Amino acid sequence: MRHLAIGGMAALLALSAAPVALAASPQLAVTLKPAPVTGAAGEGIVPFVDVTVEIPSLAVAAGAPLLRLPLVTNNVQSVAETLTDLTASDSDGPVTLTAKDDADTPTRAYRHWTAARPVQGTLTVRYRAPITTQANPRGAAPPLELRTDGGGFSGAAGTFLILPESQTAYGLTVRWDLSAAGPGAAGVSNFGVGDAASTEALDVEQLGATYFMGGAIHRYPEAAPTGTLIKGFFSAWQGTPPFDGKALMQWTEGLYHHYLVYFKDPGARPYAVFLRPNLVNAGGGVELNGAFIGTFDQKTDVKDFKFTLAHEMVHTFVQSLDTAAEDASQGLDSSWFSEGIAVYYQNRLPLRAGMVTPEEFLADLNSTAARYYTNALNGTPNRDIPARFWADTRIRVLPYDRGALYFALVDEEVRKASHGKRSLDDLILAMLDRRRHGRPMDHAAWVEIITRELGPRGKVELDAMLDGALVLPGEDAFGPCFTRTTTPLRRYQLGFEPEVLIQPKRVVRGLVPGSAAAAAGLRDGDEIVRPVPQDMIQGDQHATLTLQVRRDGQVLPITYLPRGETVQAYQWVRRPEAPAKCG
């Protein structure tokens, strides 16, 4: 895995609450009217989108919680502080709104609105949401912000859509007003192309995980129907990727159908893939409510990107462990399961389907293994990950890398214990069967299943992994085609305090004497003026890091190889006598 697909924020965003009957739920309607493109279509920007939200069946007292929009969600700034022309009205006329903000946190902070008088019936909220062309000022984050490129725009509802502050589940109707967007413009959401609606009622968190893309965009299939919910695979992308977008989406559609068979899924729901350019950590992405948002830049390697797509599609089928609604970590403490299983299957399932070569499989596996076994913080207990997730890339990748190798170890042990009759696949399908029959698919369920399969050692090994013990699958863990070896690799070393990179003003402190950063001329007190992508380069032994720093009123680039000591790291190689077909 070359790029960190914050993927799932499955723990954060791919919500798994039981569906609510649509017919019994009020219908919330959203209308999006993008501005005319500035510059040539396909090259210009969409500067803003006018938003109308109609919220029915309200009965809210004066001063009571009424509306909300995150100020920050998963380290992404919303439009809460930059939106304009905000108005609201109900059946009694205009409603005056008063805003109050939560304290800033990287994970989630809200702007709340209350009304000076009681609000009754349908509340209509209108405003203008500006669309950015700038990199996320907070640094590493999933591609959720409202962004414009190539004559199109996209964003997650949670970063620009004002929603009711309520526990009510709503049906969602999406309407597009493309009258100003120019000829050929289209609008797409999780629910389909053009005006569309959800088939299930969604709570406010699920509403916020809806994704939208509109304007001068590309689509596959090009003839996808409009106005109705699409069942199965569809995709859209904005900008101009350095690869054949249609060919990549055809490959992804083929893998999607393979997943349907493997996960025993009827495929009745839509599965959408949205692609867009990204200025930081291109090549990764995030899964949101049955859709994947992938990112690219002009250096994105399509072979690597296929594994990102394969990873995120696993999230759609497996999702995350059930967690308590009041879970302060927002599921990050269970991301070892959701991210680990996605990394484990992102290369295993395409290999089985004959959609990647054994060499490509090995390259992806070894990228994960190299990053884990050279990670100076790979002994960090799982319980410490939520608090440090955004502050340090070495912590951020642990659920992915350690989780994947843990599942490889489990697969190896289940195969040996059953004399080849069972595998990890049987355990994952048993977990999914619990959810499909309304039973909890949570940490306790996994403990029950792994203990039943492997006896007491199943829980002992799980607890050891969560406590930070090194995970080491055996020589034959990945089948008869491959075997384990070691190779000297260097640890990732940023060279200064990592938390600097998520602060509003990035002032270097804690410079490590003798580090590559210090040797390149970086100093304590230098101000880093641009976001710094680390997740993409952490697993690449040869990737350099360039910082744009301000010193004495001047901005200068400082480039270095962010590597420290050399250690022996485990890798896997193909056996000379391996059969031609591996999987």
Outline of this structure?
The chain is α+β, with helices and mostly antiparallel strands and 583 residues long. The chain is 25% helix and 28% strand.
SSE inventory with pairings:
Layout: E1 27-34, E2 48-60, E3 67-73, E4 76-77, E5 84-90, E6 93-94, E7 97-101, E8 108-115, E9 119-130, E10 147-149, E11 152-156, E12 163-164, E13 171-176, E14 186-189, E15 192-193, E16 196-197, H1 204-208, E17 211-215, E18 218-220, E19 232-237, H2 245-262, E20 270-277, E21 285-288, E22 291-296, H3 302-318, H4 335-352, H5 358-373, H6 385-388, H7 393-396, H8 398-417, H9 424-436, H10 443-454, H11 456-466, E23 482-492, E24 506-507, H12 516-519, E25 527-528, H13 535-538, E26 545-551, E27 554-560, E28 563-574
Parallel strand pairs: 1-13, 19-20, 20-22
Antiparallel strand pairs: 1-2, 2-9, 3-4, 3-8, 3-12, 5-6, 5-9, 7-8, 10-11, 11-17, 13-16, 14-15, 14-17, 18-19, 21-22, 23-28, 24-25, 25-26, 26-27
Helix pairs in contact: 2-3, 3-4, 4-5, 4-8, 5-8, 10-11
Structure description:
Keywords: Hydrolase, Metalloprotease, Protease, Signal. One of its GO terms (molecular function) is metallopeptidase activity. It comes from Nitrospirillum amazonense. Residues 308-375 form the Peptidase M61 catalytic domain. The chain is α+β, with helices and mostly antiparallel strands and 583 residues long. The chain folds into 3 domains: 27-246 and 270-290, Immunoglobulin-like (Sandwich); 332-486 and 568-574, Neutral Protease, domain 2 (Orthogonal Bundle); 494-561, PDZ domain (Pdz3 Domain, Roll), CATH 2.30.42.10. It is built from 13 helices and 28 strands. It has a 7-stranded mixed beta sheet with strand order 6-5-9-2-1-13-16, with no helix packed on it. Strands 3, 4, 7, 8 and 12 form a 5-stranded antiparallel beta sheet that branches. A 5-stranded antiparallel beta sheet has the order 10-11-17-14-15, with no helix packed on it. It starts with 26 loop residues before the first strand and ends in a 9-residue tail after the last strand. The model is unreliable at 6-19 (pLDDT under 50).
